[in-house]
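Support case: user asked for a sample of complex input and structure output to validate their parser. Sending the pair below.
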Amino acid sequence: MNELILLVPEAPAPDAPAAVIEERGLLHAELRLGILDNSKANADHLLRMVAERVRADYAVKSLLTLRKSSVAMAARPEVIEQLANDCDLVFSAMAD
Amino acid sequence: MSRLDEFLNEAKSTVRVADDHVAVQRLFLERGWSDGLPIVPPTAARVEAMLAYCDRPANAAIAAMAPRYGAVTPIRVAINAVMAGCEPEFFPVVLAAAEAMCDPAFNLYACQATTHPVAPLVIVNGPIAREIGMNARVNAFGPGNLANATIGRAIRLALINIGGGIPGAGDMATHGAPSKYSFCVAENEDENPWQPLHVERGYARGATTVTVIATEPPHNVNDHSSTTAEGILKLVAGTMRTTGNNDIYNYQDGTYPQPLLVFGPEHAQTVANGGLDKRDVRQYLFEHARVPLGAFSDEYIELRFRRKYPDAPLDTLIPIFKRPEDLMIAVIGGPGKHSVVMPTFGATQPITLALTRADGTLARSVLDFKKRS
């Protein structure tokens, strides 16, 4: 049977550098932890529990908790900037 | 030299498969490249034919499509348009619609990923809609017209394959909606007693535009009885007045939901004969399409409304849309005493884009895209 050559419709994800915790030496430092609450019901409770679990296993220097004003909208640039500047590790994105 | 050469030299740009209908369909389903319906195999020759109606660089990104942020290039869109069954003359509309929904204000990331049954509706206005034979009349949202069906399907395939809106992965809709297969219509400008949608949104009547709106499927307003403008609008308001839609609470950060009201031409004519223009319609529905706070559960009120209405009693009437000017109005459909209301995803803004050639001039015909700049 003959073969067809077809064009692939799928566009790959743009290249993004993977963040590897070991390479950044975070496991040996005091973590600056961040939480971005997406404002869905119970997000605050779950994310707080995640943060407490991290505290149990790692040295946590600080915890910054911020909240999106709308679950359906991207976080404002100043929120992202603050998390990027003040945190080594950020937990986000949950649904109720 | 082919316009595909650069693309074809990229890794993983092609796939080999037996020249057999079943094998092709199975491959595209297995790879997650299909919407579940049979596709037209995207051969190089078919994609080249599609690109004959594109005067932009074929392999250059014009946008990034969320949530994967895949590059929206004419070639990638053309591949999906071929798969959908588009005629090459439809391609300028497909490309413009794909570009429009990548505008950040449209909030495609959330529209694609949400559990809500939203899909981007494409409304086409202007001469090219007529030139390519789009249906604005009987059964406009339904089956039977090649342009409506395949342009809408091409957009869905692009949302899956370029944007990564893969069911169960990038698209987490609880139920989904039939409008996620295809959702494209033209406005019935000939039977619109008011300004058509694109003129109202700042474009010349001779321009061809795509307006993308992230909406639910149509909710019908059946009114064979009313003979006055107020009578019809009373029924429209009653249909808009629902608790379970996103528009009623989803406003913040300076953005306001813009639900869509689609008049059937007979209803539109009755309302216009009553001396009402679109502004009057918006004002009436702003005042009457309201839901009492007490219609919502206590938990819902706490979560959605208490910060906005801190001390409001339960008989407070909450408007479906927050400012009269936020109601979108179009006239679409054929004979019959029906209109439809279409709530939106809420956290989204409609986007209108004119079909322009690469040099920025307005396209008057699809043939304009065959003249290379």
